[in-house]
Amino acid sequence: QVQLQESGPGLVKPSQTLSLTCTVSSGSIDSGGYYWSWIRQHPGKGLEWIGYIYYSGRTYYNPSLKGRLIMSVDTSKNQFSLKLSSVTAADTAVYFCTRGVHYSDTSASIIYYFDYWGQGTLVTVSS
Amino acid sequence: SYELTQPPSVSVSPGQTASITCFGDELRNKYASWYYQKPGQSPVLVIYENTKRPSKIPERFSASNHGNTATLTISGTQTMDEAEYYCQAWDSSTYVVFGGGTKLTVL
Known about the structure:
Distance between the termini of chain A: 39 Å
Strand content of chain B: over 45%
Oligomer: heterodimer
Strand content of chain A: over 45%
Shape of chain B: globular
Radius of gyration of chain B: 13 Å
Structural class of chain A: mainly beta
Number of helices of chain B: 0
Number of helices of chain A: 0
Order of helices and strands of chain A: EEEEEEEEEEE
Largest interface: A-B, 24 and 25 residues
Number of strands of chain A: 11
Order of helices and strands of chain B: EEEEEEEEE
Number of strands of chain B: 9
């Protein structure tokens, strides 16, 4: 089955850029129909969707993070990445990479859900 | 922006039926998914496309979506079902939205 693994620094200083990479195994990142997402969870809180990227490079970002967020994909390495700039303590969270399944029904309503998740990586923003 | 609202907590006795609700404006016109998350673990998909179960999810998990409320039902709840449960949907303006989560206690 598909496996996802996050990697990157666990500690980032305020105002700097948080960078994470997700490596996908047992599945190809350029398989159609899958949108590769980042989701975060603040300590003791719920889930917050950050954004997703298609293998073509098309992106959708959470409007609340737009402007600080850049996602990219490297199909040759079967990886996708996240860069979040100008971080503050409010960006301290566990970051999950996930595989999103995205399609439409006959009336063009969108079905979107996450079927595979990485184990998550804690990123702390602190000086 | 679109929001999904869940009760913070639900309690159920072992063997009984647990129901967890997720409220959103005209949610019936969207597709709801459900996840559970145990402490220190990643979320696990239990329901997608309102009512469908992934193959590895037990039949005791079912769901519906009517009106403004999606409901996850766990029949014959087991102690292993104790977890945080999240609903999720897609909205055309907000994109991916999660509910705030419901802690299911089995006691």
